[in-house]
Amino acid sequence: MNTNGNVVAAQDAFAEKSERDLINAVQQGDRKAYQTLYQTYIGQVYALCYRLTSDRSLAEDAAQEVFIQLWRKIGNFKGDSKFSTWLHTVTSNITISYIRKQRGWWQRMFNIEDSEAMHHSAEQSTDLSELEGYIARLPERARIVFVLHAIEGYRHEDIANMMDMAVGSSKAQFHRAKQLLKEWMGYE
């Protein structure tokens, strides 16, 4: 008998039950439970917001907006999927919407050449911090599609729905992002 496997399964079941109880408490308006939920997920939410915005200030603001909306919309979570999966989708949608509201979406999308990052030379090294820097340099729509598809695992159909674009546009933006990253990393 493998007691280690049983212990792990019991811990997973307890964690799932505890999370369900926590979410139920938040859905009932329990502010302490909400604070616990916030502390549990703020790191993951901020990380996704940052990957999508490539701007610390915008990511902080977007993450806060996610949790404001989460308080209002937690009742929409029915438990059909894992809470973290649902929160990931909510975070992506809210952050994309937030980006559109906070900056001139179209102006920023076409004026990335003005960014200081474009004037830095790309080196051949591909460590994680450099890769994140290259991703941050991508044009906004290409960056969002790249992050959602390549890093977060969304299908192009889902991205197209979230961003109100055609599936072909999502695929084209992803291809554009890959080409730019290859170029900047010296692979072309």
Automatic annotation (TrEMBL):
RNA polymerase sigma factor 70 region 4 type domain ranges (all copies): 130-181
The species this protein was found in: Aliiglaciecola litoralis
Family the UniProt entry places it in: Belongs to the sigma-70 factor family. ECF subfamily.
Key words, A-Z: Sigma factor, Transcription, Transcription regulation
Keyword Cell inner membrane: no
Protein name: RNA polymerase sigma factor
RNA polymerase sigma-70 region domain sequence ranges: 37-103
InterPro entries, sorted: RNA_pol_sigma-70-like (IPR039425), RNA_pol_sigma-70_dom (IPR014284), RNA_pol_sigma70_r2 (IPR007627), RNA_pol_sigma70_r4_t2 (IPR013249), RNA_pol_sigma_r2 (IPR013325), RNA_pol_sigma_r3/r4-like (IPR013324), WH-like_DNA-bd_sf (IPR036388)
PANTHER family: RNA POLYMERASE ECF-TYPE SIGMA FACTO, RNA POLYMERASE SIGMA-70 FACTOR ECF SUBFAMILY
One Pfam family matching this protein: Sigma70_r4_2
SUPFAM superfamilies per UniProt: Sigma2 domain of RNA polymerase sigma factors, Sigma3 and sigma4 domains of RNA polymerase sigma factors
Keyword flag Transcription: yes
